[in-house]
Amino acid sequence: YDTSLFLVPSCYKDDLKSLIICEGLIKDRIRKLAREIHESVGDQPLVMLCVLKGSYRFFTALVDELTITRADLTCSTPLTVDFVRAMSYEDTETTGKVQLVGLSNLEEVRGQNILVVDDIIDSGLTLSRIIHTIKELGAAKIWTCLMLSKRVKRRIENQEDFVAFNIPDKFIVGYGLDYNQKFRDLNHICVMSPTGIAKYKSRSS
Ligand code: 5GP
Ligand code: MG
Ligand code: MG
After folding, report:
1. Which of 8, 25, 26, 44 is deepest in the core (most CB within 10 A)?
2. Within 6 Å (CB) of ligand 1, which residues are found?
3. Domains of the chain (ranges plus CATH)?
4. pLDDT in tens, 147-193
């Protein structure tokens, strides 16, 4: 879509090429995804693990919907949340090294059923590092939920249990996803323009 059809912060007006998924569609898909997750997980304790920062908006929307679904279906077990920060990107490319911060407390993971919630899967490196780490920490069951899955050849194949949308291999921003920390405050998922990429390119590279 043409971004002028939607509300976009005016500072980003020239930085976006097109809008590929609007907020309303994301919200609708999350509502359905919560049902899909509930059908698989059922009535058992669940830890939802948010992979920061990119998935924070998707995560909170999904927690809200899953909480409603579980309440409607009178679940008798609690849903809890946990957070890990993962970093690997420099500008629009993965560096191939994934840094994980904040996932050191064994007791929070050991014996738990964990739903890993991430914004996007591209090479698969980030998700693979997280799955490996929580397996080592003794997680009982592990599911993964991705807001976006890029249709590309993965460097590492992972289990992708729940995927909201499959998207083409373009660098995208918005709904939590950044380009050098900008655009997380954009409500819709958009493809960047060359102008935007040049404007917010990190000065170190
Ligand atoms: P992977 O490790 O699978 O290559 O990439 C996963 C992480 O890289 C994502 O969690 C996300 O933070 C970042 N990433 C991958 N593709 C994109 C993209 O198109 N846009 C943005 N903003 N981040 C991306
Ligand atoms: Mg991420
Ligand atoms: Mg990022």
Report:
1. 26
2. 54, 88-89, 94, 118-126, 171-173, 177-179
3. 24-167 (3.40.50.2020)
4. 999 999 999 999 999 999 999 999 999 999 999 999 999 999 999 99
Q: Which of 11, 5, 10, 12 is nearest to 191 (CA)?
A: 12
Ion ligand 2: residue ranges with CB closer than 5 A: 54, 119
ipTM field: 0.96
Burial of 178 (0-12, 13-18, 19+ CB in 10 A): middle
Instruction: Give yes or no for a cis peptide into 53 (omega within 30° of 0).
Output: yes
Q: Does residue 91 carry a catalytic annotation?
A: no
Q: Whose CA is nearest to atom 19 of ligand 1?
A: 171
Q: How many CA atoms lie within 13 A of 51 on its CB side?
A: 27
What ligand has the least distance to the C-alpha of 55?
2
CA of 39 to the centre of ligand 1 (A): 28
Q: Are 31 and 58 in contact (CB under 8 A)?
A: no
